[in-house]
User: Which sequence fits this backbone?
């Protein structure tokens, strides 16, 4: 059994998109893999300005949310990234093996630097830190046939075909489709390091962590985000049933009253349909059939109710866990200790290979 690593930024309470696109599958991975590591990636979060007091709160809130969703600290290593200093150290070494043009076209930089007009050096090198997060735990040994397929075919495939190929293999790093290029960077960096120093890092493999992208309720052309300033755009895991009903009722749809699933031409109503399908465990077709005869106003009530049913137990559990900050801190400290015990020997070897004596 292989190991799994993934991370989430403590930039606020997680939302329905984080849950359906990542956390739900993180929970399931605990049953399939022997070592499962989930990191609250606070080093990543400061690539955008963060208020220190708020960041501290968000880290503990994120820990409470992950536990409430079903991350079990007896089966997973749950830890705060900055508490394991090897992440930053390896990131520096890998950054020295990367060129500026290699990073310029990666999605995180393109998306977030555009929003801000300019971005920090940290935002630019974000994918290098991501590569360090993964490589530090030496995952994802590819079998030789995978290497052969990849080397012959990979560069000729389009993104969707690459995702399908990655899905077919035994894979270890849960990533969204938009993160595939970042994982490719980690693969490249492993290769570059091995060429420059010595065969050391196995190339990490991707595990597609859900193809569902939940869209903003106010602007279905963009994804639902923790940091979206529009309060009605995001359904948080801590939202009360009233909050959820209000947000879904106000969700942007269009002038057609029928409920159909046409993501290109009707992104708003299609977003409702796919959220409804995901939370109720039904297919999109089943959900559309169920909505026959309803207008979008009536349908919104059904969707809101289904979301409330899914999120209500999680919200109550977050509330309970939040009340004991000391317990959360001690869980994170124990997680960091375990992560450190895996990362430290890897970094000792890396330091030797680089020549740091
Ligand atoms: N809208 C979404 N739909 C599906 N999956 C999503 N994820 C994020 N938004 C959606 C997935 O959640 C995991 C953790 O994400 P993250 O917090 O590390 O980074 P992010 O993608 O930048 O998330 P946010 O919510 O948009 O945060 P902010 O506002 O801080 O940038 C990832 O697997 C991600 O794919």
Assistant:
């Amino acid at each position: 059994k292989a190991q799994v690593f993934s991370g989430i930024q403590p930039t606020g309470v997680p939302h329905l998109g984080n849950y359906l696109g990542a956390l739900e599958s993180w929970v399931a991975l605990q049953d399939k893999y022997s070592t499962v590591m989930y990191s609250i990636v606070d080093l990543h979060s400061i690539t955008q300005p963060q208020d220190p007091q708020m960041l501290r709160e968000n880290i503990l809130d994120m820990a409470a949310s992950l536990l409430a969703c079903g991350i079990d600290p007896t089966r997973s290593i749950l830890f705060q990234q900055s508490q394991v200093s090897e992440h930053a150290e390896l990131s520096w070494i890998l950054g020295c093996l990367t060129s500026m043009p290699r990073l310029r076209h990666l999605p995180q930089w393109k998306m977030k630097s555009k929003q801000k007009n300019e971005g920090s050096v940290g935002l630019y090198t974000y994918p290098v830190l991501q590569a360090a997060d993964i490589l530090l735990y030496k995952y994802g040994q590819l079998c030789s046939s995978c290497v052969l397929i990849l080397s012959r075919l990979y560069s000729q495939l389009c993104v969707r075909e690459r995702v399908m190929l990655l899905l077919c293999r035994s894979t270890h790093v849960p990533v969204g489709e938009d993160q595939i290029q970042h994982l490719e960077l980690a693969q490249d960096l492993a290769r570059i390091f091995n060429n420059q120093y010595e065969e050391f890092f196995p190339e990490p493999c991707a595990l597609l962590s859900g193809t569902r992208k939940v869209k903003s309720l106010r602007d279905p052309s963009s994804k639902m985000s923790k940091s979206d300033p529009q309060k009605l755009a995001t359904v948080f895991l801590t939202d009360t049933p009233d909050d959820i009903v209000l947000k879904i009722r106000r969700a942007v749809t269009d002038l057609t009253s029928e409920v159909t699933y046409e993501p290109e031409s009707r992104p708003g109503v299609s977003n409702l349909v796919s959220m409804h399908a995901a939370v109720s465990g039904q297919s999109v077709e089943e959900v559309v059939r169920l909505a026959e005869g309803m207008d979008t106003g009536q349908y919104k009530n059904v969707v809101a109710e289904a979301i409330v049913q899914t999120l209500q137990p999680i919200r109550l559990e977050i509330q309970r866990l939040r009340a004991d900050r000391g317990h959360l801190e001690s869980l994170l400290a124990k997680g960091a200790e375990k992560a450190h015990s895996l990362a430290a020997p890897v970094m000792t070897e890396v330091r030797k290979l680089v020549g740091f004596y």
The chain has two domains: 3-212+325-354, 238-321. Strands lie at 3-8, 35-40, 76-80, 173-175, 206-208. The longest strand covers residues 3-8. Residues 139-171 have pLDDT under 50 and may be disordered.
